[in-house]
Design goal:
Acyl_CoA_acyltransferase; Aminopeptidase; alpha+beta; single chain; N-acetyltransferase; seven-stranded mixed β-sheet; about 180 residues; globular; 6 helices
Length: about 180
């Protein structure tokens, strides 16, 4: 199944595949102290190793039909804003589809994560990929928790150091029906 949002657009963003050429522009994310913890990176990695790991994982997802993060490009400026997409995840031995999003620090608190997350959620339900969609974040990642809540999700459970928020197709339909 192809869960990628390549070519999709929102008001401000365009989704495209991540390429090796994006490495240098994405690297600043790993200079932030909390990022490795928030992304569940293995302990003890340098910033370069973290970025390498991220890209290796991204291309593995693409090659194995496990969804993946798309690059988020500002339609007006052409700036690389961050990454977002639908990711196949295993949570407590169950395969789930997750809305994932990561934004470069200089673009934090400008609504980009929310805009991308809403597009990912709607894309999932419109294409009927999964009837239950999740977002996972580290317990200390309040910004991502707020994005999940604004995306119509509620706390389902906590697994280790990660909160799992979810929304069902029926919940989404109730919120998107216009009368």
């Amino acid at each position: 199944m192809n869960y990628l949002l390549t070519g999709e657009k929102t008001k401000r963003l365009e989704f495209r595949l991540v390429t090796k050429e994006d490495y240098d522009v994405w690297f600043p994310l790993f200079k932030e102290n909390t990022v490795a913890k928030f992304l569940g990176m293995p302990d003890g990695m340098s910033q370069t190793e973290q970025c390498d790991y991220w890209f290796k994982k991204a291309f593995h997802r693409y090659e194995n039909n496990l969804g993946g993060m798309n690059a988020l490009i500002d339609k007006q400026t052409g700036d690389f804003i961050g990454q977002a997409g639908l990711l196949v995840q295993t949570v407590e031995d169950e395969e789930r589809l997750e809305v994932g999003y990561s934004i470069l620090p200089k673009f934090w608190k400008k609504g980009y994560a929310q805009e991308a997350a809403i597009k990912c959620r709607d894309f999932n339900f419109e294409h009927e990929f999964s009837n239950n969609l999740i977002s996972m974040m580290h317990v200390d990642n309040i910004g991502s928790e707020i994005v999940a809540i604004k995306n119509g999700m509620t706390l389902e459970k906590q697994v280790d150091e990660f909160k799992v928020f979810s929304i069902t197709r029926n919940q989404w339909l109730k919120k998107t029906v216009v009368i």
